[in-house]
Amino acid sequence: MITWTIQAIAAILLLAIGSYTDLRTSEVPDWVSHGFIYLGFALNLVLTIVFMDIWFIVASVIGFALCFALGYAMYKLGQWGGGDTKVIMAIGSIVGFNFGDFLLLTFLINTILVGAAYGIIWSLIVAFRNWKNFTQTYLNYTKSKPIIKIRIGLYAFVVFAIVASLFIAPIFRIEIFSIAAIIFFLVHLWIIIKVVEKSCMIQEVNPSKLTEGDWIVEDVVVKGKKITGPKDLGIEKSQIADLKKLGVKKVKVKYGIPFVPSFLIAFILALIVGAWYLGFFKMLGT
What we know:
There is one protein chain. The protein is mainly α. It has three domains: 2-101, no CATH class; 129-200; 204-254, no CATH class. Helix content is 71%, strand content 6%. It is built from eleven helices and five strands; from the N terminus they run ααααααααββββαβαα. The protein has helices at 2-25, 30-51, 55-76, 82-95, 103-129, 131-142, 145-165, 173-200, 237-245, 260-273, 276-285, and strands spanning 202-205, 215-216, 220-222, 225-228, 251-254. It has a three-stranded antiparallel sheet. It has a two-stranded antiparallel sheet with strand order 3-4. Helix 1 (2-25) packs antiparallel against helix 10 (260-273), helix 5 (103-129) packs across helix 8 (173-200) and helix 5 (103-129) packs across helix 10 (260-273). It starts with a helix and ends with a helix.
């Protein structure tokens, strides 16, 4: 119990510091994430020595690897920045993966669910704060041919679902209507989030204001040579230096959602609620 408490306190401290810096500067400094990764390994190494139990450090390595896999996948998908990924890795090294103790697994599941809700709420708040830009971009975006095709397909699907429900047993109609309504809602939510990104989260900035890991929206080409672009998944310090040296005035940058506060919420929920999903699986098995 003492070891569990120490690990939980260290994790909450990391997430509290990370949340503060992420909200204030839109990034988590490397000294925070790297420092807590090393702290996690060091803490579990000390516990291994004190309790003569090698599983502490083994669990730390497994937890780090598990969080690295999830974080790297989310980073490659463009959902998280490099700082978010490093924070998750630090949580893995601190808490570790222990059979019979589902704290880390519960935290990761909560992170996906809480992160999705958090991202939606954050996007809607940003849209309302930039209502004029959002509405104008929304009108233009929904008139584009790809979106028109998507919406026509969506409406056709809803009409088909309604007609099909007339020929099936009444007991299944609610399920058909529910599925159609959920898909209709999710497609329009996706459109809104894309519009928020285009209208509120993309800015033109001078290279002097760039920081390592910023997402570049368009390829920056100088004298036929590509310096950076969206495929880089985060600009590097050397690329920022090249942009300054070549006299580039403006680059388009996408500023993402500060997700670390959602990690803090997910971890606190994991501590309070516990492995809630186990009851769900038991219910499915009965």
